[in-house]
Design brief:
72% helix, single chain, mainly alpha
Length: 366
């Protein structure tokens, strides 16, 4: 009897459980994928493997690729910080003018192509000015040049060197006035370099036309474009001549009490304005604007000096390997660099606006 009960119990154990009701089976089938997904989420490959790094490249310095290439080339050449800052300003101005030209072209307002030619010449001047044109500097500095100025930089022109030596040995200048004269001489040197670079980009076309013996058949558009190029060269040459005459006078006589402005670029603009066709009221208004412009230049000069000091300090700190100290100096250098670029752009743009006003006043003389 007992054995029968044991056998019947074993049979009950071996039998499979009854199938679940149809409704319960349906619910299990529907909910199973969600349960698996929720369980796997924590341990899935997507959750445990890091996301691929973003492929977005750092923002470019300029919107135009060709200008970015020039900027990168200048950085590879390890130009001094102040040169890089000035180059950045010139490239920003170039970019602005190129976008303006594209808009003009789209509106059909540059049919003769003169605005486009100006852009080409302007870029060529920038390339030559900063040594980005791939040519070796053909100017040979004579070993007989006198000792250099505060920045230990050659003036590259024997005439300017003689003026500098005359001023230094005359005893008529304070140290601040010598600094001022040195800036004027450097500014004059840069003007001459830009003039020769511009003359070279014109390729002698204008000169051959002027020296032609027989009649030259030019269309009205071509003649107007050629006249515009000659006017640009004449303006620059006149400014160079006036500037050198003034430098020669100052180096011999010293700075008189009548000197109104300190900055070379402002002095240039004031000399040109006095010889332009301004009314007395217009000239007085221009004088006041030049005073504001000089303050802007002085602010830019201040940041340039701070940038140079920061650059020297950063190089000094980097040699010690204190990463925290280096990081702080890099941060300050980056801030000064950005501010110097911003002010450089404002100064250059303001100078262009003032030069344009003088040019328009001169053309009113004709």
């Amino acid at each position: 009897m007992a054995s029968r009960r044991v056998l019947s119990g074993l049979r009950a154990v071996r039998q499979p459980p009854p199938p679940p009701p149809p409704l319960l089976l349906l619910l299990l089938l529907l909910l199973a994928p969600w349960a698996v997904a929720g369980h796997a989420g924590k341990y899935s490959r997507e959750k445990n493997e890091p996301a691929p790094p973003s492929k977005r490249e750092p923002a470019a310095e300029f919107r135009m690729e060709k200008l970015n290439q020039l900027w990168e080339k200048a950085q590879r050449l390890s130009l001094p910080p102040l040169k890089l800052s000035d180059l950045h300003t010139d490239l920003k101005i170039q970019e602005r003018d190129e976008f303006k030209w594209k808009k003009l072209k789209a509106e059909g307002l540059d049919e003769d192509g003169e605005e486009e030619a100006k852009l080409v010449r302007s870029l060529s001047v920038i390339l030559a000015k900063y040594g980005l044109d791939g040519r070796k500097d053909s100017r040979v500095v004579s070993s007989n040049f006198i000792d250099h100025g505060p920045d230990d930089e050659s003036l590259e022109d024997p005439r300017l060197e003689k003026l500098w030596h005359k001023a230094k040995t005359s005893g008529k200048f304070s140290s601040e006035e010598l600094d001022k004269l040195w800036r004027e001489l450097q500014h004059h040197k840069e003007k001459v370099q830009e003039y020769h670079a511009l003359l070279e980009t014109l390729g002698g076309t204008g000169e051959s036309h002027e020296n032609a013996i027989g009649p030259v058949d030019l269309s009205g558009v071509q003649a107007e474009a050629l006249a515009s190029r000659h006017a640009e060269l004449k303006d620059r040459l006149r400014s160079i001549g006036q500037g050198f005459d003034r430098l020669r006078r100052v180096s011999h006589q010293g700075y008189g009490a009548e000197t109104e402005f300190m900055e070379p670029r402002v002095l240039d603009l004031w000399d040109m304005a006095k010889s332009a066709n301004f009314t007395e009221k217009e000239l007085e208004s221009f004088r006041e604007e030049l005073k504001h412009f000089e303050v802007k230049i002085e602010k830019h000069n201040h940041y340039q000096k701070q940038l140079e000091i920061s650059h020297q300090k950063l190089k000094h700190v980097e040699s010690f390997g204190d990463q925290e100290h280096v990081a702080r100096n890099k941060e300050r250098y980056a801030m000064l660099e950005e501010k110097t670029k911003e002010l450089g752009y404002k100064v250059k743009k303001h100078m262009q606006d003032l030069s344009s006003r003088i040019s328009r006043a001169r053309h009113n003389e004709l």
